[in-house]
Amino acid sequence: MLSQIIKTGASSRMLVSSRAILPVVQLLNTRRLLSITNNGFLLQKKSDKSSKQTKSILTDDLLTKAGIDIDDPSLSTKKEPTSEKGEETEGSEDGKDAPGNTTKKTKKARKTSTEIKRERYSNWFYIFSFSGLAGYGLYMTRDWEENEPQELKVKVANGYTASLMYGRFKARFNSIFTYFQEPPFPDLLPPPPPAPYQRPLTLVLSLEDLLVHSEWSQKHGWRTAKRPGVDYFLGYLSQYYEIVLFSSNYMMYSEKIAEKLDPLHAFISYNLYKEHCVYKDHVHIKDLSKLNRDVNKVIIIDTDPNSYKLQPENAIPMQPWTGENDDKLIQLIPFLEYLATQQVSDVKPILNSFNDKNNIPIEFNERAAKLKSKFVEEQKKKAQGNWAISLLGVSSSPAGSKFPLDLIREEGEKNYVTFMKLIEEEKEKMRIQQEKMSGQTFTLKDYVEGNIPTPEQQMEQQAKLQQEVDAIYEEKKKEEAKNK
User: Fold this and answer.
1) Which of 181, 203, 230 is the last residue before a domain boundary?
2) Which residue, 262, 339, 376, 482, could crosslink 268 as a Cys pair with Cβ 3.0–4.6 Å?
3) What pTM value is reported for the model?
4) d(CA 322, CA 312)
5) Among 104, 98, 99, which Cα is nearest to 84's?
6) Helices marked H in 140-184 — which ranges?
7) pLDDT per residue as tens digits for the range 354-399
């Protein structure tokens, strides 16, 4: 019984003690958790602080050698503190200024060896460039030389004063730009032939929108149409004029068209292009004074007024041809034929005598009709005065009683027919010659082995070939005559 009471008391004391100890244990557990949390927080702070102090093994030198731009702001994750003036500063390793350090140093951009070499080479380039320009500028101030244009020498004299040196420099510097504005040669045409073979006048014709017209379409591309009467116009007037074709376009575009107009170069004496124009006031001008011909004996027919703005007195303007069927070129032939057969020393007064240069054919026909009627009346009066001769039945009209312009036209037509026969013969001979020479070719092996004939042998072969071509052509003419 006593033992039960003792056990019961002990258990009750244990129960009481366990109930009393439980809050204490809970308090201790709470304090332990708080201490762990605090220790973890402190450890984290220490680790953050130590991470700031640690350095990466990828140093700036290694990154630079690897080709990485370390100064690229997009690759930088560290923000440098800035001073009041906005300059980046370089602090201590932990991001704070060292104690007692009151000065702030600006961060210098790091340069690679390639950038340093590039800067060095560029500096040398600038030095040599400026030195060369300065030397060339000083060279342009020298005295005039014999081969320089006389027009430059007249403006500024020789001497080494400041004003004269500047004047020579300015004149030479301006002449550099005029080089690109002037034609490539001072004389665009060679000297004229001797008097027996020289044409009395020179006729300059535009190509675009006067003799031909070019159009572009999506279906056909570029197509060029030849104006009606062009062949007759060129062939007929070539007996009176030295015809010069002056295109308003560049040579690379107009040369093939000019070759098709006159493949034998029988009508057109010379071809000129846009490269031979004078560039002035933002337009290309066909300067007739550059043709190496007497300007008083030169006529230009063009559709663009800017083309002849330097010599408008020598021009016959025409409206641009757009592809329609007309005969305006043929209408010009009587006037141009009359002008070339009158031994004119200056064409400008005759051209300027017309009220409207655009209607020269009409006005000329009116003048010619008046002259012809007057000529007929004079011939009638002469016939009436010789009544005694008329009674005997003898004609009183002289051999040249026809109107002079009609006689000129008849003679011109005969010459044109004869000339065109010669052209056709030459075309046929050229065709036969091309057929005969088609098999005569030289290979690279012939050039290397020296199997090419000498110039004398080539001349002999050419003469024999020409004789063969003439013989073949004569036989062909005889056969055609027999067939007729």
Assistant:
1) 181
2) 262
3) 0.63
4) 24
5) 104
6) 150-155, 162-181
7) 999 999 999 999 999 999 999 988 888 877 766 555 555 555 454 4
